[in-house]
Amino acid sequence: MKDRGHLLEKRKKLIGTLLAAPVLFGTFLFFLLPFAICVRYSFTFGIGGVSFTGFDNYKEVFSSYAFQLAAANTLRFLAVGVTLNIVLSFFTAWMLKKGLAGSRFFRYILLLPLVLPIASVVMVIQVFFAETGIVNHWLISLGIPLVQWLEGPKAFYVLVGLYLWKSFGYSVILLLSGLNAIPEEFYQTAAIEGAGRVQKLVSITLPMMSPHFFLAVIMGIVNAFKSYREAFLLGGKHPHDSIYMIQHFLNNNFESLNYQKLSVAAIMLFLVLVFLLCGFYMLQNRYREG
């Protein structure tokens, strides 16, 4: 019986390994191997990386104005866009849970932005915010000077608005599910103990919502990096400086076959993402323990 159980256990492990083999092979072939090649390119020079240069490529990229501009804009976009998305989504989810008038209809349209083609949405934005668009026509009729919405610093806020419009519904539904999962008995017990609304929010809602906040922040960061599509459609390969993102830097270096700069920027982007994810994960665990 013991030998039979040992053989059965080995068979299960073998079957599990065979089932996982395609995924493991795909991960190695399409993720780990390209990343290793990217790391190699970042320390070499020439086509195919024929000579080792150490950290010269990193120094060159860090001193590049284009990279500094792209990195600053990307971090600014993450800070503004993701923060506004979480705050507005949580407030809206809270109001929906409290029975906001028209909440049923509102829930139906939350995910509408996710199914609309982004090219058509950007076309509508251009109709409204172009130099000769509808918004500037209204402003001129009111005696207000013409505003460069897409060719000036205001392009950043147009892009943030597009990001919020696209990501808002998903975040609301995610946070609303977290609010609905909190037992009402907790609030009733807190009310009996004399806790006010702020105490309930700080001591019950926020701690129990931390996993949902963590997931919403992660998805918000992912969607923020996907906003390159909107930035590209609004301004092309070389948009206004306010919306020149790290993806523009990567794409332009790829088109010019500058694999060394491309590799350095990609590695730095990877490290920043890992740092952000680990930081939010540690913050979530510390908050829940506290």
Q: Which helices and strands occur, and which strands form pairs?
A:
Elements: H1 2-42, E1 44-45, E2 51-52, H2 56-62, H3 65-97, H4 103-109, H5 112-115, H6 118-129, H7 134-141, H8 155-180, H9 184-192, H10 197-226, H11 228-235, H12 246-255, H13 259-289
Helix pairs in contact: 1-13, 2-13, 3-8, 3-10, 3-12, 6-11, 8-10, 10-13, 12-13
Description of the molecule:
- The protein has 290 residues and is mainly α.
- The chain contains 13 helices and 2 strands, in the order αββαααααααααααα.
- A hairpin with a 5-residue loop joins strand 1 and strand 2.
- The longest helix has 41 residues, at 2-42.
- It is flat and about 75 Å long.
Give a quick precis of the structure.
The chain has 290 residues and is mainly alpha-helical. It has 13 helices and two strands.
Look at the structure and give the mean pLDDT.
85
- Biggest beta sheet attributes: 2 strands, antiparallel
- The succession of helices and strands, N to C, reads HEEHHHHHHHHHHHH
Which regions have little confidence, pLDDT < 50, spanning 5+ residues? none
- List how many beta strands DSSP finds: 2
What's the multimeric state? single chain
Terminal Cα span? 50 Å
Helix/strand class: mainly alpha
Lateral arrangement of strands in the main beta sheet: 1-2
Radius of gyration: 25 Å
The global form is: flat
Helix content: over 70%
- Indicate the proportion of strand residues: under 5%
Please work out how many helical segments DSSP would assign: 13
